[in-house]
Amino acid sequence: MELEQPDPVRAGRRHRVLITGAGGQLGRALRQEFAADDLVALSHKEWDVANPPSNSLLQGSFDLVLHAAAWTDVDGAEADPQGAAAVNITGTANVASLGAPLVAFSTDYVFDGRKREPYVESDGVNPLSAYGRTKLHGEAVAGPDAWIVRSSWLFGPTGDNFVRTMLRLGAERDEVAVVDDQRGSPTYVGHLAHAVRELIDADRPRGVWHLAADGDCTWADLAEAVFSEAGVNCRVRRVSTDELGRPAPRPAYAVLRSERAGAPRLPHWREGLRACMAALGTKEAK
Ligand SMILES: NC(=O)c1ccc[n+]([C@@H]2O[C@H](COP(=O)([O-])OP(=O)(O)OC[C@H]3O[C@@H](n4cnc5c(N)ncnc54)[C@H](OP(=O)(O)O)[C@@H]3O)[C@@H](O)[C@H]2O)c1
What we know:
Layout: E1 16-20, H1 25-33, E2 38-42, E3 64-67, H2 74-79, H3 81-96, E4 102-107, H4 130-142, E5 147-151, E6 154-155, H5 162-172, E7 175-179, E8 183-184, E9 187-188, H6 189-201, E10 207-210, E11 217-218, H7 219-230, E12 235-239, H8 241-244, E13 253-254, H9 269-285
The chain binds NADP nicotinamide-adenine-dinucleotide phosphate.
Residues 20-21, 23-27, 44, 47-50, 68-72, 87, 91, 105, 107, 135, 151-154, 159 line the site of NADP nicotinamide-adenine-dinucleotide phosphate (NAP).
């Protein structure tokens, strides 16, 4: 009698896991979280996902693909929407063509921000920016069998993110002007990576999942929290989005919550900030 082979993803035993965009802030956190697996972690240089998968490292099959590569320059996408589409749409299609169980990351910027209570998975989408539109198309090409994980306002101890920018500016200046009319849930990449593993290990159904930090705040609130946690003496001047005049429109309200049964819960953003500061301290101590 032939024994049925257990599905390694469902059984929580993954033999071979691919991470794209492994040099990015989320990619690095995923590498740490999935370190016990047989990881193939490819940076932009190792696989430009805008190109079909011909890399020799992509030979053989994968039990899980964590697709963290993306064009994330929101303002840059307004100037070069085709460049953003090549990565966020064609790139995602190329990753999906591997045919493996796929986690594709998406964003709160698929919403227009007109709601005043948290966005759930069944809410209608209406991206305001070229970046948001490419990410929404990316969700579609990831396919119905992918886990589409939408998160928001990511930060971590590496890469270009708001927390690191504030730490740099706070050390140089007495005052920074920060937007106070956009509200979201700043999410620590380590907490997101952990929640993704929970989602997969618990064998939750495919489809869209909102995984973002608990709580919400404005960018100005976050800047003040960064200075307070770091003990930096820098004032935050609260300004409007219009005053700052960035090229890409952004949703005024982008708080994400899950309405789905069994959705992993992430810690509060302030806890994420403390975890990030601790990781930064460790990094600097090295
Ligand atoms: N950052 C946020 O606030 C935020 C919020 C919600 C959702 N997300 C989503 O979360 C995911 C991870 O974002 P992140 O914050 O970790 O971004 P990130 O730090 O900018 O990382 C993205 C990575 O993708 C790489 N990449 C860019 N173009 C590529 C290409 N053509 N082929 C292969 N790799 C490429 C980048 O490499 P180079 O730097 O060398 O180009 C970078 O290492 C993305 O899907 C993003 O849309 C982000």
